[in-house]
Amino acid sequence: MTSRWPDPDRARIGSYVASLDLRNLKSRTCYRQVLHSFQDIVERHEVLDQQALQAWLRELATRWATSTLLHRTRIIDRFLDYLLVTGAIDHNPVEALREACHIKQCMPIWRALISRSPEQALAKLRQPKPFGSVLGEVMAEHVAMMRRRGYKYTSQPERFLQFDRFLQLNPQLETQPLSVMIDQWAATKGTRNHAYERENLERIFAKILRRRDPSAPRRRPDPRPRKEVARQWRKPHIYSPADVRRMLDIARSYPSPRATLRPLSIYTMLLLA
Fold first, then answer.
1. What's the Rg (C-alpha) of the chain?
2. Buried b (16+ CB within 10 A) or exposed e, 226-259
3. 114-136 pLDDT, tens per residue?
4. How many domains are contained in the chain?
5. I want to staple 262 with a disulfide (CB 3.0 to 4.6 A). Which of 105, 135, 256, 273 is the partner?
6. Domain assignment present for 4
7. CB contact burial 196-212 (16+ within 10 A = b; e otherwise)
8. Phi and psi at residue 113, in whole multiples of 5°?
9. CA torsion 254→259→264→270, rounded to 10°?
10. Residues 199-253: pLDDT tens digits?
11. Domain containing 224: what range?
12. DSSP one-letter code for 173
């Protein structure tokens, strides 16, 4: 192997565990046990890849429960990050699988590898590449421009990503006009909130297109979806003095023969609320 790990004297494991400053002897023993078992498998396979990860999981599955084994994978994650930072390995196979699936967490990768059909489980994990659709570049440029202007711009990119994933999962829409794409996306859900999301998406795309082509006609906003969503919101209720007095009376007379302090406690909580 071209990398400097696994090392024959296993000094890497010792230096890594020492750098953690673990005060509990059991924790240090657990770390060494997990890391030595992992290095045994990698040395046997001679390559640090997905097959080595699966072999380690299969072997340790005979000793530990699945929940315990998955918890131990966090030790491997941190150790691989340490090896990568120190230059002891050329690549991190878990990180490579995360990037291939376009996910941020390591645990779903380990759950897929420990399953009966790892390849099928990994295929289910794979997410479309962010802004990888035919309109992805346009949306990504708009998000970058808004953030350069000083806006946080966090909610709108989520709408863009939802629309982007829909377009990637429906490649037959690539040659269709933008209005058809949005209509097909809006048809996937019939909720009032989704109609409001559609209105927002159409409004933002109208701004983007007009910025690119000032001669494009202005789009008139439709306030109806927002009003429909607002009707679902809970309206605040203002209690009258009579209502408050009635609640306090009920609290003080609350029947509680086994817990005599309960009525007074409820009364006090209402006063402090």
1. 29
2. eeebeeeeeeeeeeeeeeeeeeeeebeeeeeeee
3. 999 999 999 888 888 889 899 99
4. 3
5. 256
6. no
7. bbbbbbbebbbebeeee
8. -70, -30
9. -70
10. 888 889 998 988 888 887 888 888 887 787 777 777 888 889 999 999 999 999 9
11. 136-230
12. G
Q: What is the pLDDT at residue 127?
A: 83
Q: Residue 225 corresponds to which amino acid?
A: P
Contact (CB, 8 A) for 57 and 72: no
Both tokens of 249, joined, read 């009376």
Residue 5 covered by a domain: no
**3-state class of 124 per DSSP?**
helix
**What are the Cα distances from residue 47, in Å, to 32, 40, 57, 105, 110?**
21, 12, 16, 23, 18
Dihedral, 18, 23, 29, 30 alpha carbons, nearest 10: -100
Distance from first CA to last CA of the chain, Å, rounded?
66
- CA distances 103 to 96, 129, 156, 160, 165, Å, are 10, 10, 20, 17, 14
